[in-house]
Amino acid sequence: MSELHARIAGIGRYLPDNVVTNDDLAKIVDTNDEWIRERTGIATRRIEEDPEKGAAYMAAEAARVAIDRSGFAPEEIDTVILSTATPDRFLPSTACDTQAILGLPNAMALDLTAACSGWLYGLTMGEGMIASGRSKATLVVATEKMSGIVDWTDRATCVLFGDGAGAVVLAPANGDGTGIVSSFHCSDGNLGELLWRPAGGNICPMTPQTLENRDHLLKMNGREIFKSAVRSMAQACDEALSRAGMTGEDVDLLVPHQANIRIIQATAKYAGIPMEKVYVNVDRYGNMSSASIPVALDEALEDGSIQPGMRVLAPTFGAGLTWGAVVLQF
Ligand code: UT7
After folding, report:
1. Are residues 171 and 248 in the same domain?
2. Domain annotation covers residue 1
3. Residue 170 in 3-state DSSP?
4. Rounded to the nearest whole angstrom, what is the distance from the C-alpha of residue 273 to the centroid of ligand 1?
């Protein structure tokens, strides 16, 4: 087992109250409950209806719980790493907006853009800050208001996503044996246009034409992403497990990115982990991008799926393309 540098001192989540069913979506696009359940495993998702409640609001709600549970005072949080694909505005960062809501006077705050993999990337960045002694308490929060960037006229994408946020506070490992055991991350920028928002940046600024084409909204090549996801999650599991000196048999719970039940099943099968040892909430929340894994971890701890002493493997993939996995010892 590799040396532990950082442990999870506190964890929290936020989910909007508003539940949207597949039948609700069938009223706005040409889809149906059967197709969505069969192809994705999704039955409902949460959608934040209040325009005043953006990514920073959701991040702050999740982070407040994580900080309370961590035992750290807000003044002691020295680093905020925030993952989002749905920032509230281009400048300043959603991390700074979140810091302002929470009142964290002694923290540096920055956004991290790695789509669905962002929270796991952030966890490893935070671990590095802790390991180097630069941070004593790092907040790693993922917040995704996917409802703000999906095209509600595109049935191929709008049925897949949901809103939510999850957060942890990382602290130096304290000898109790818990913490981040291993990690692996990778990206392939050549495949960026498989899942992207074409308009709104320097190369393709927003114009009346791009607005009319809905090019500022999420576009996805679902089939290609599916294939890449299965391949990259498998590699991520292999690498993170081998760096931890483990095999799939040593894993007590698989907590994968929650995009599609078929991708989750393929990943579990590849890693040799039976579905009884897989945490699934894609049926209730859809794909919450980088918030999926921390929300699932928080729920799994709360409902007893994760017990002290358990080893958890968490693999992810997303736009970029980005992918990776971590092994956590609870
Ligand atoms: O975090 C990363 C985010 N992205 C992903 O994880 C996406 C990965 N990809 C997927 O999960 C799957 O590719 C989808 C769920 C997006 C699509 O499933 P699929 O089995 O690959 O379906 P498909 O795209 O091949 O479409 C099959 C049919 C098409 O009709 P035709 O051409 O066969 O007549 C689609 O037009 O299903 C149709 N279709 C729908 N029908 C009803 C597409 N979306 C819908 C829909 N309701 N919502």
Report:
1. no
2. no
3. strand
4. 26
CATH number at residue 122: 3.40.47.10
Whether 116 is catalytic: yes
How many residues are present in the chain?
330
Q: Residue 165 forms beta bridges with which residues?
A: 14, 143
- Same domain for 113 and 218: no
Q: What is the pLDDT of residues 168-197, one digit of tens each?
A: 999 999 999 999 999 999 999 999 999 999
Among 39, 83, 221, 231, which residue has the most ligand 1 atoms within 8 Å of its CB, making it the best to mutate? Answer: 39
Calculate how far, in angstroms, residue 156's C-alpha sits from the geometric centre of ligand 1. Answer: 5
Compute the distance between CA of residue 64 and CA of residue 74 in angstroms, rounded to an integer.
9
Question: For each successive 10 residues of the chain (330 residues), what is the average pLDDT?
Answer: 89 98 98 98 97 97 98 98 97 98 98 98 98 98 98 98 98 96 98 97 96 97 96 97 97 98 98 98 98 98 98 98 98
> Ligand 1 mean position to 93 CA, how many Å?
33
> Which residues sit with their C-beta closer than 6 Å to ligand 1?
31, 35-36, 39-40, 116, 155-156, 159, 220, 222-223, 225-226, 229, 259-260, 287, 318
CA 165/CA 46 separation, integer angstroms: 11
Are 83 and 186 found together in one domain? no
| 30, part of any domain | yes
277 contact partners, CB below 8 Å, separation of at least 6: 251, 252, 253, 254, 268
Assess if residue 161 is contained within a domain: yes
* The dihedral sign for the CA sequence 271, 314, 123, 98: positive
Of 80, 59, 85, 298, the C-alpha closest to 169 is 80
Write the pLDDT tens digit of every residue in 53-82: 999 999 999 999 999 999 999 999 999 999
Residue from 22, 96, 116, 158 carrying the catalytic annotation: 116
